[in-house]
């Protein structure tokens, strides 16, 4: 059983609630007579409130649950243990500060380390654009070549480059979207992207009505350098000269190579009777 010193700290009922939880946990082992524990209590409660919904904070009265404290190697008070999100084979030592800000900062670093990378989403409709670009401070918009120009292998290589960068910059909470040449032509026109060829990439801050265009190649190193400049504010943005239109509903890419459109069949001309051709000539 896990004890709780104050309402702001998440109440837990058993060790299984922590160990079987998919959430990340910080658990304080304390003693009621411990002066440092009493000093930590309001900071712990404040941190619990700030981290609510992202990290759970619990507390154990180690004087009542000595076996539990011994299992996790508690030798002094307060001792804070870190239980990562997902499967929990064992606890790790918390090595951060003891203020609420320190606790929150330490937890957020852990969250970033183990956060899932963002999805690189195809711009299939206006809902995708709204979620990734209108609701986020910055979204990275990529316009890839037509599938006939790259094949599935080439397109997947471009998308893999974006996935790698999405993982690298996941703590920035960027939106990441892609389409291909001409599929969302109105959006391309609004962002003034793709006029110099494909693939093309831009960083869009729709709330500030601004766009920054990447002028280099579509490699991980080149785009990474561009994003570093964007974050540092070293690239002057362009003001959107046209409102971003509502996107058309598109068909998802099936992951396959493209197929050339079938050519018109003019074989019927071979069956024309010679007299028909003579008649045509006469009429002319």
3D structure, described in words:
This protein has helices at 15-19, 35-50, 66-71, 100-114, 126-134, 147-168, 185-191, 220-232, 274-283; strands at 24-30, 55-61, 79-83, 92-93, 121-122, 139-144, 175-180, 200-205, 210-213, 238-239. By secondary structure, it is of the alpha/beta class. The strands form two sheets. A six-stranded mixed sheet has the order 5-7-6-8-9-10, sandwiched between helices. A four-stranded mixed sheet has the order 2-1-3-4, covered by helices on one side. A hairpin with a 4-residue loop joins strand 8 (200-205) and strand 9. Helix 2 (35-50) crosses helix 4 (100-114). The longest helix is centred in the middle third of the chain and has 22 residues, at 147-168. The protein is elongated and about 95 Å long.
What fraction of the residues are assigned to beta strands by DSSP? 15-25%
> What letter string, H or E per element, gives the SSE order?
HEHEHEEHEHEHEHEEHEH
Count of DSSP H/I helices: 9
**Average pLDDT level:** 87
Q: Overall 3D geometry?
A: elongated
Structural class: alpha/beta
Strand order of the largest sheet: 5-7-6-8-9-10
Helix content: 25-40%
Major β-sheet profile: 6 strands, mixed
Counted beta strands: 10
End-to-end distance: 100 Å
Rg for CA atoms = 29 Å
Query: What ranges have pLDDT less than 50 throughout 5 or more consecutive residues?
Result: 1-13
């Amino acid at each position: 059983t896990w004890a709780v010193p104050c309402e702001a700290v998440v109440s837990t009922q058993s060790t299984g609630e922590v160990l079987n939880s998919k959430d990340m946990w910080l658990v304080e082992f304390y003693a009621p007579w411990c002066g440092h524990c009493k000093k930590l209590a309001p900071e712990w409660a404040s941190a619990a409130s700030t981290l609510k919904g992202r990290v759970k904070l619990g507390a154990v009265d180690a004087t009542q649950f000595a076996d539990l404290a011994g299992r996790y190697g508690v030798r002094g008070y307060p001792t804070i243990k870190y239980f990562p999100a997902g499967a929990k084979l064992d606890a790790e030592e918390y090595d951060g500060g003891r203020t609420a800000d320190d606790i929150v900062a330490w937890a957020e670093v852990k969250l970033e380390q183990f956060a899932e990378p963002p999805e690189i989403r195809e711009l299939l409709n206006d809902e995708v654009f709204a979620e990734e670009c209108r609701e986020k401070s910055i979204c990275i918009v990529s316009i890839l070549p037509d599938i006939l120009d790259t094949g599935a292998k080439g397109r997947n290589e471009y998308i893999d480059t974006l996935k790698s960068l999405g993982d690298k910059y996941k703590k920035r909470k960027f939106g990441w979207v892609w389409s291909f040449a001409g599929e969302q032509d109105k959006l391309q026109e609004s962002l003034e992207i793709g006029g110099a060829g494909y693939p093309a990439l831009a960083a869009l801050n729709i709330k500030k009505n601004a766009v920054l265009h990447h002028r280099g190649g579509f490699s991980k190193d080149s785009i990474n350098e561009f994003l570093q400049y964007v974050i540092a504010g070293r690239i002057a943005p362009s003001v959107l000269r046209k409102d971003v239109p509502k996107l058309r509903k598109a068909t998802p890419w099936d992951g396959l190579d493209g197929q050339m459109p079938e050519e018109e069949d003019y074989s019927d001309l071979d069956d024309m009777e010679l007299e028909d051709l003579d008649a045509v000539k006469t009429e002319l």
